[in-house]
TrEMBL record:
InterPro entries: Kinase-like_dom_sf (IPR011009), Prot_kinase_dom (IPR000719), Ser-Thr/Tyr_kinase_cat_dom (IPR001245), Tyr_kinase_cat_dom (IPR020635)
GO cellular component: plasma membrane
Designated name of the protein: Protein kinase domain-containing protein
Domain Protein kinase positions: 10-238
GO molecular function annotation: ATP binding; protein tyrosine kinase activity
Nucleotide-binding among keywords: yes
Source lineage: Eukaryota, Sar, Rhizaria, Cercozoa, Chlorarachniophyceae
Keywords recorded for this protein, A-Z: ATP-binding, Nucleotide-binding
């Protein structure tokens, strides 16, 4: 595991006015959507950025507006955080745009072309993620905590062949810890697998470690963990 800076550097996230958002959004190209947000590629200050426009109820938006101000977290070279946000008419967060996209997108493209990462790049990505997760779990005066949503969609491929971990998820910015629901699927520790139900207990660092192991399985084999479909049958989770 790589070295970690002893004293974290605090970054300031730019707050966009409604006018700045509108000017940025004029250059927007739709990239995709999830249940909590729409994704666009835009231009901000002459640079391409990824913009996540939040889709939520008013109560959740109020929580988002408070939560986004707490994301001025300690910086680490392998952790990606928002570079700007808007909490006005159109709530959104803005990230640097990675040409290769997320780890999920990258692996899908590799599979479609019949290619695979070489072992050196897999090891490098593993070390990058381990370093970022170790840093995230350290107590930097309460600035950082558990990730809670570690999966290939929240991991970005560096332009130089490594990986970077997004230090937030939109879903975690819309609800308090007691209200969050965990996704079902291969990256969630079984005892916290939400499956549409609210959690009875909060996650811990061990929950993230399990998810990290499942990400490594995907990274090295391009397969996910097995889930029991019937008592006498097993199938791969898509």
């Amino acid at each position: 595991m790589g070295s970690v800076a002893a004293t974290p550097e605090v970054s300031r996230i730019r707050r966009l006015t409604d006018g700045e958002f509108e000017r940025m959004f004029k250059s927007g190209t739709f990239m995709g959507e999830e249940s909590t947000h729409l994704m666009y590629k835009c231009i901000l200050d002459g640079k391409q950025v990824a913009v996540f426009v939040v889709v939520a109820e008013e109560e959740e938006l109020n929580y988002f507006r408070n939560k986004v101000k707490t994301l001025q977290n300690a910086k680490h070279k392998k952790i990606v955080g928002p570079i700007a946000y808007c909490d006005g008419k159109t709530p959104c967060v803005v990230l640097n745009l990675f040409k290769e996209g997320t780890l999920k997108d990258f692996l899908l493209r590799m599979r479609a072309t019949g290619k695979d990462l070489d072992i050196q790049q897999k090891v490098r990505c593993s070390r990058d993620l381990a370093d970022a997760l170790y840093f995230l779990h350290r107590d930097h005066k309460g600035l950082l905590s558990w990730h809670r949503d570690l999966r290939p969609e929240n991991i970005f491929m560096d332009n130089d062949g490594g990986c970077q971990l997004a230090n937030f998820s939109i879903s975690s910015m819309l609800r308090g810890p007691a209200e969050q629901q965990y996704r079902s699927g291969p990256y969630v520790v079984p005892e916290l697998n939400g499956r549409g139900r609210e959690l009875a207990a909060p996650a811990t660092d061990k929950s993230d470690i399990y998810s990290f192991g499942m990400v490594l399985l995907k990274l090295f084999t391009n397969k996910t963990a097995l889930a029991r479909a019937e008592p006498a049958a097993m199938k791969e989770v898509p």
